[in-house]
Automatic annotation (TrEMBL):
The keyword Hydrolase applies. Pathway: Glycan degradation; xylan degradation. It comes from the Eukaryota. It holds the Pfam family Glyco_hydro_10. Coiled coil: none annotated. It comes from Podospora pseudoanserina. The keyword Signal applies. Its EC number is 3.2.1.8. Residues 1-19 form the signal peptide. Belongs to the glycosyl hydrolase 10 (cellulase F) family. This is Beta-xylanase.
């Protein structure tokens, strides 16, 4: 999966070393290659203010990233910290950045069992009370961002590891009804946005969780409820990841029930310490995602990495002993995976009859 020197020398071709990820993704037939980001001064970003200027220059480069997602700012904890009290400050940071730099905005996430405001989990809910809270939350948040979100991750991680419904506060009170209510409400509030079900561990075709995601979406479609896409988070492992063929087969399963899919939170964690072999495995994993998406571009619309700068990654905080999951090291040098993807995009473009010229 490397582009030969002879291909690089093709008439009029720009050397791929000068090309960047979003421009290559678009030339290969995708809608975007993007990177999620978070609010400066908070969470993983807090200890690294000296990095912001160089980080921002990379993030805002339209040839590098043509799409972005707020990693945290639109979650329930931040936008509705008290019942009926809404604060869009953190979500607006990323939405405004997307507008200012002409990036596609994927919005994330309307209903999720995690990062809830404490009052959601501590209230003794009646069914009617929780229905009203869900509808109010989606109406206010999706309504506020209406017209700005190309995609909404409407429901996030509603499945357990065995493919059954996660026993969240929403499911425990309302059962499967809350899933239908969530998508029905989102469709009414922002009918132009593409509405996604988003989850991790749904990238392999033989996974019971993948089968669960197909069942969930089919349930919605059978009920006449709008759901446009499936988001495969793709938090993957360098030393044990799906093959390109597996990813393609999984996308084929989702194509049976939705019109589009996306890789929505891609990162590839490495067990520390990092070494050359692990970085090679990581590069191969990133390339397999690129290949799978481009080879199914009739349904796979794009790839989002879950931030791009290693110090801002969530991975080492949640999975001790793992790290270096993104594309730029702390000193802003690039992982081998970056060039690996550039080269494989070029090979795929060449196979489609292009000349790898990037405008």
């Amino acid at each position: 999966m490397r582009l030969s020197t002879s291909l690089l020398a093709a008439a009029g071709a720009v050397p791929l070393a000068t090309a960047q990820l979003h421009e290559l993704a678009v030339k290969a037939g995708l809608q975007y290659f993007g990177a999620a980001t978070d609010t400066p001064g908070f969470r993983e970003r807090e200890p690294y203010p000296e990095s912001y200027s160089q980080y921002d220059a990379i993030l805002e480069d339209p040839k590098e990233f043509g799409q972005t997602t707020p990693t945290n700012g639109q979650k329930w904890l931040f936008v509705e910290p008290e019942p009926g009290v809404f604060n869009f400050t953190e979500g607006d940071y990323v939405a405004d950045l997307a507008n200012r730099t002409n990036k596609i905005l994927r919005c994330h996430a309307l209903v999720w069992h995690s990062q809830l405001a404490p009052w959601v989990e501590t209230t003794e809910w009646t069914k009617e009370g929780l229905r009203e809270a869900i509808v109010r939350h989606i109406t206010e948040v999706a309504g506020y961002y209406r017209g700005r979100c190309a995609h909404w991750d409407v429901l996030n991680e509603a499945l357990d590891e065995d493919g059954t419904y996660r026993k969240s506060v929403f499911y425990n009170v309302l059962g499967e009804e809350y899933i239908r209510l969530t998508f029905e409400t989102a469709a009414k509030v922002d009918p132009e946005a593409k509405l996604y079900y988003n989850d991790y561990g749904i990238e392999r075709p033989a996974s019971v969780k993948t089968a669960g995601a197909v069942r969930l979406v089919k349930m919605l479609k059978d009920a006449g409820i709008k759901v446009d896409g499936v988001g495969m988070q793709a938090h993957l492992h360098a030393d044990n990841h799906p093959s390109e063929a597996d990813l393609i087969n999984t996308i084929g399963m989702y194509k049976e029930v939705v019109k589009e899919v996306a890789f929505t939170e891609l990162d590839v964690r490495i067990k520390v310490p990092v070494d050359e072999q692990k970085l090679q495995w990581q590069s191969e994993c990133y390339q397999k995602v690129v290949g799978a998406c481009v080879k199914t571009k009739d349904v796979c619309v794009g790839i989002t990495i879950w931030d791009f700068y290693d110090p801002f990654s969530w991975v080492p905080h949640v999975f001790p002993g793992n790290g270096a999951s993104l594309l730029w090291f702390e000193d802003f040098s690039k992982h081998p995976a970056y060039d690996g993807m550039v080269n494989y995009f070029g090979e795929l473009i060449e196979a489609q009859g292009g000349n790898s010229t990037c405008s």
